[in-house]
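Researcher: I need the complex structure. Ligand is S-adenosylmethionine. Inputs:
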Amino acid sequence: MAHEDGDLYHAALIALLEGVWGDGFLSPGGPAEIARLVADHDLSGAAVLDIGCGAGGVDIALVRDHGAGFVSGVDVEDTVLAHARMRIAEAGLSDRIGLAKVAPGPLPFPPQSFDVVFSKDSIVHIPDKHALMADAWRLLKPGGWFIASDWLIGHDDTPSPEMAAYIAAEGLDFGMASAGRYRDALAKAGFVEVTTQSRNDWYRVTARQELARMRGPWRETAAAAVGPDFVDHNIDIWERMIVVLDKGEHCPTHIRGRKPG
Ligand SMILES: C[S@@+](CC[C@H](N)C(=O)[O-])C[C@H]1O[C@@H](n2cnc3c(N)ncnc32)[C@H](O)[C@@H]1O
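Model: Output:
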């Protein structure tokens, strides 16, 4: 659903998602989920690329909580990038995080620019997982890690009617793929130690808590900011999402692989 500013992630959607997921976040879990994704990887001083940086919260967490040396955040939309710049300035981290608008496709950085290629719930918008992983391989230094979370589908068949209805309700350009497709894309690019770890159990519980909050007193606060119809539209999305989380067809997943060297 493109909005008056022309972006899929328009100002009202950013306001609503930040209200549910926290300032700077357009995906669930906040800094705690970033920490689970980083796990025991040492990011101190690392040059990190963040694909689909959104509203900047991920990049702030990577620097502030994990000591990344410099994060280069890229995104395809102006509205999220303007918002991210504001959040990053607010956090006093403009000297540690650089943002760039990019076109979909190969990213405009020289080979071997990064120690870590990171992404949180954005690759769902990039249909060609094999091309993306090949580009991540090109951009990583030998020994570097690809570390991502993303919204996967439980299979590569036609989505069930419930899944199709959920995807249509989101109104975003989802190009979902299975964990097998992600692992194949990473392996074909040359990555080793490839793993995928479903976060479905965690998000089934968390999404219910989010929905309860959206239906509670928070609804009035959000309605004052973005209008009651838009809040109710998102409550409908969450209801549909919980159905497909319960079926295991919607699978938030952690994905990792190492470039040998
Ligand atoms: C669900 S949001 C996640 C944002 C952020 N990573 C977070 O976790 O808060 C997905 C983001 O991916 C961006 N995006 C969509 N297509 C993209 C592409 N081809 N390359 C990079 N980013 C893209 C969107 O504009 C949006 O900001």
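Model: Summary of the prediction. The chain has one domain: 11-258.
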